[in-house]
Specification:
Structural class: mainly alpha
Number of strands: 0
Number of helices: 4
Distance between the termini: 12 Å
Shape: flat
Radius of gyration: 20 Å
Strand content: under 5%
Order of helices and strands: HHHH
């Protein structure tokens, strides 16, 4: 289950009163994550992705390369 699906499951299980309390606690802080400039590590990852972005690997092949069986997931 994705994070969004889990959040929706929680959301739809809350009562109106619980939602009001949730918003009172977190509502003002949801958009307060500041955007910052990439640090050296981030910049290196960005540069690497721009150079080597032509390779495509099938997800099942990637899972196999990690030593797992995609059918087990």
């Amino acid at each position: 289950m994705s994070t969004r699906e889990m959040a929706n499951t929680i959301y739809y299980s809350l009562t109106e009163e619980q939602l009001k309390r949730f918003i009172a606690l977190f509502g003002l802080n949801i958009n307060s994550i500041e955007e910052v400039e990439p640090d050296d590590f981030d910049s290196e990852l960005i540069a690497d992705s721009e150079i080597d972005n032509d390779d495509v690997m099938d997800l099942d092949d990637y899972v196999r390369s990690l030593g797992m069986n995609p059918n087990d997931l």
